[in-house]
Amino acid sequence: PVPAPPKLQDEVSCSICLEYLRDPVTIDCGHNFCCVCITDYCERWEGSTTGVFFCPQCRAGFLQTTFRPNKQLANIVEGIEQLALQPDKEPKEKLCEKHGKKLRLFCEDDGEAICLVCDKSRVHRSHTVIPIEEAAQDYKMKLQEALDLLRQVTGEVAKLQAQEGKKTAQWKDKVRAQREVIVAGFAKRRQALEEEEQLLVCRLEEEEEETLQKLQKNAVFLVEQSSSLAQLMMEIEQKCQQPAADLLKVRAPLTMSHSVKLQEPEAIHTELQDSYEVPRVRETLQKYRVDVTLDPNTANAYLLLSQDRRSVRVGDKRQDVPSNPERFDTCTCILGRERFTAGRHYWEVEVGDKTCWTLGVCEERVSRQGIFTPSPATGFWTVWLRNGDEYAALTSPLTELMLRVRPRQIGILLDYEAGEVSFYNVTGSSHIYTFSDTFSEPLRPYFYPGVRAGGLNDAPLTLQPGTQQP
């Protein structure tokens, strides 16, 4: 605000609060004071009980009842204040809401700015009061300390941000490197598979060519034999047209005809090898491996189960077991506990040197009563071994299987959504056979350890431990 001239400043200021007069009153000696200031002064003055007080400026006596409001002076003060609030000037300083005075002090007890009149009031009389500039300076120091602390914390945050940024970059580098390893690994695997595929196709083509040559050789042999026989038949027919005397003289053709025998061509096997080796097939299947155990409630009464429910063999005596509709009453069969309605599941069965077995999956609802022939039409997808070396997929009719390596362990992969049940020779790392169908019912592992005939087939079928899928 624009200050008043020094002489006028003294005339419009209260000598008690040192600020512009508010509701000015004139006392007997002629001096002017704020009505609030002089009233508070009188209340705090410790004088005689006569009601006489002494002027704060000249010490002349006066009575409180003789206060005279000075309207003219009030108008002058108001004019000076309005002049100070002209446009483009500094904003008006905040004043005390109670007394209208400048806030020159700070009460530390109440934590608020007060004016000089507030300081002399009973409310703040016993409080610790300091000049507002000192309080502001102390507050600035505290703010500076807080600012320094915030700057320190900000610096630490910046360091952490840099560390996290470094971690992020390192993590991206690791992921990128691992991605390159995975891509390179699978590229090598695909290359190996392609090479193996080409090798198998070449072998098949060689087998095809070799067999075709043998078949062609047999065809030529049969054509030559047929031609020879036709020539001999023609000679005999010509002889038959000769007169009787000449006919009876001919002995050679007759003797030759009696010595003729059918010469069969070389026996050639035309069965293709149903199994083929797949590199790292077992490692690929392991990710679908599940832990399968046997369900004793479905076991035929002649079957003997191990305590851990992983092995089953045929006994020579009927066991005393409860009769229930789940149990196979005639065929020596048993199911796994697990029921599959989705996903891919792989398990392995040790068959060892057994000469007879049937393995695969079946629908939950298959008949357990009487004698039956497993096939997809009756809810079974299985392969078997009979007579020690006769393998077949139980399709209708049977599909004979030629295995180069005798399996001691069979792997079974069920892909429910794809409708496939695949069998693998774990011993020879080769594929045996795949059923393709559509599944809509729960499927369960199926086991038939054969009949008790003594010897090798008395050995059990044993499930290999697996890892249960989450």
UniProtKB/TrEMBL annotation:
Keywords in alphabetical order: Coiled coil, Metal-binding, Zinc, Zinc-finger
Coiled coil: 136-163, 190-225
Domain B30.2/SPRY as annotated: residue spans: 271-470
SMART domains documented for this protein: BBOX, PRY, RING, SPRY
GO molecular function (one): zinc ion binding
PANTHER family given in the database record: E3 UBIQUITIN-PROTEIN LIGASE TRIM
Listed name of the protein: Tripartite motif containing 39
Native species: Terrapene triunguis (Three-toed box turtle)
Gene that produces this protein: LOC112113163
